[in-house]
């Protein structure tokens, strides 16, 4: 994001200009989804930080694996299957 | 009934409170720390969505299907949507309600004014998609939270389903 655009940005009224780095937004999403879910799942809240981190890492790794699988499908499997 | 019997309880008041504000159901049922964590998670997602995509991501008129998911967060979504529709959008020459374009302003009667600054910007592409996704996921998670507030025994915690410090 350029400093000029950041100066013009009005929080909540204008969207963030993170179009080049949109994939970074998976980290806060994974963390907040894990926090919400684990907050109602753990028996004792003492386990919450660890369980939240573990689930967040699992989500991020699963998304990377799904992205890689989709890339393999489009790049290698689909050209083999589809007629030329 | 034996001590070993697992009996899920039902807390209708906690369920109603959870529908009003995420985490409030757990809070009023005595699970205050859990309620605060739930609030931080669900509202964190909702507010981050608004921050990423702007208020344009909550739009009951233009993105109705997504709005159904976002509405599960509770009255906060309806408040944001009301503000978006009635305080930020403009009425153009054809009487259409829409987001002001760059170079357009909003008059006191809500009609579009040539010149000035738009009250908000239309979000597009990835930022709109991700912002909308954040707030919709918040709504869907809140369903799990509300169900947990209403039926705490389903969690299967120590003490035969009764949460620590909870009023069962």
Would you mind describing this structure in some detail?
The complex is a heterodimer of chains A (84) and B (168). With 84 residues, chain A is mainly alpha-helical. Chain A is built from three helices and no strands. With 168 residues, chain B is mainly alpha-helical. Helix content of chain B is 49%, strand content 6%. Chain B has six helices and four strands, in the order H-H-H-H-H-E-E-E-E-H. Chain B has helices spanning 12-20, 24-28, 32-53, 64-70, 75-88, 125-150, and strands at 90-91, 97-98, 104-106, 112-114. Chain B has a two-stranded antiparallel ribbon. A two-stranded antiparallel ribbon of chain B has the order 3-4. In chain B, a hairpin with a 5-residue loop joins strand 1 and strand 2. Residues 1-7 of chain B have low confidence and may be disordered. Classes of the chains: A mainly alpha (84), B mainly alpha (168). The interface between A and B is medium-sized, with 26 and 42 residues.
Chart the SSEs and their pairings.
The complex is a heterodimer of chains A (84) and B (168).
Chain A: H1 3-8, H2 26-41, H3 48-81
Helix pairs in contact in A: 2-3
Chain B: H1 12-20, H2 24-28, H3 32-53, H4 64-70, H5 75-88, E1 90-91, E2 97-98, E3 104-106, E4 112-114, H6 125-150
Antiparallel strand pairs in B: 1-2, 3-4
